[in-house]
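_Full entry_
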Amino acid sequence: MVKERVRILIVGGGYVGLYTALRLQRRLKKELKSGAIEIVVVSPDPYMTYQPFLPEAAAGSISPRHVVVPLRRVLDLCKVVIGEATAIDHAKRTATLTTLATEEEGAGAEQITYDELVLAPGSIARTLPIPGLAEHGIGFKTVEEAIGLRNHVIEQMDIASSTRDPAIRDAALTFVFVGGGYAGVEALAELEDMARYAARYYHNVKPEDMKWVLVEAAGRILPEVGEEMGRYTVTELRRRNIDVRLETRLESCADRVAVLSDGARFPTRTVVWTAGVKPHPVLAATDLRLNERGRLKCTAELTVEGTEHAWSAGDAAAIPDVTADEPGKECAPNAQHAVRQAKALGDNIVHSLRGEPLETYGHKYAGSVASLGLHKGVAHVYGRKVKGYPAWFMHRVYHLSRVPTFNRKARVLAEWTLSGLFKREIVSLGSLEHPRAEFELAAGGKPSQDPKGSS
């Protein structure tokens, strides 16, 4: 048993943060209720986002609120702090936090002490100094971005339907996605599927009027599903008149014109950036060991190398893959590993507190599944290659089994069932992004931003 009060600080409320806290709640229930142990979870959002469902949320197959898991509800034995860690001094066991109240109070950042640290802030979008990207680019890592992109696509169809200017119409109906990984391919495929369906309700917009472009710097897309399935995906997308450009880079999107390295130019009002991620900035503001890519150097027991009482997993951690044949290989920073690592991490913290030997994390990569729109998909699981409807069905079954809590599983399943019985929703609620605009106008003021929020 743990004999003295211990504070476990978990930085991050994503896969690793949530699942580690859940594991610790289950294993340390008695100590948490008695006050012998306190778990503090610091997260910039009051929810965990199940990112594999973002493309379906963007396409309207799943409600946005069912893509997220409320932290306070599921972590009822933990203290949840909505804020961000900006610096960590592990030698002194202190973390510097900014919260929603920090700016209001005007007292500056606060410090919190801890005994055990779980550093799992995840990653952020990796951007490049491309002209116009900061002004016009749209990300795809959060549920807000996914729903904003859905609203934006439908608004562009509205613009194209009502304008008399051919140049504006062409730009509105051109959608450029940069990045051929999971996020880019699934987002493009789902939204193209949705837009093609929505076009039947426009008297002057047809599916063939829209131009969808996928830009990938490498010579293949979806490397996770293997080369053969990647080639099949390219063929499938091109069959749907999607312009897939491999070994091509975005060089500029200034003045609403996407300029590619192969010389192509696309006037467009939509540039979606999904070209990779990079470590969260807080990792560089610690005294913990990082590798050459800026991720925490970790052991197979999920401790930070060369340090006691510091743990990590997921995107933030470089963890050796003990199941790999070649030495020096690391676990891929994906959800499949993150969820399993979090459970092992929670168990190892309990072992450490109780003076027990730590367990080694090892998981043979099972494979990958990807959705290419309604009833279409690709999969490479346990060496078997699957495509079309069976792969799409596997994608849904797998992710339904992985989304946290029975509550979310039931709601997602109910929405899928209803969407199979009824027609798609094609409503844009872009004004939600600026809810006060209409009232400001009615009160005699000038709206601070364009209420439609066109990018």
User: Anything to note?
Assistant: The longest helix spans residues 143-162.
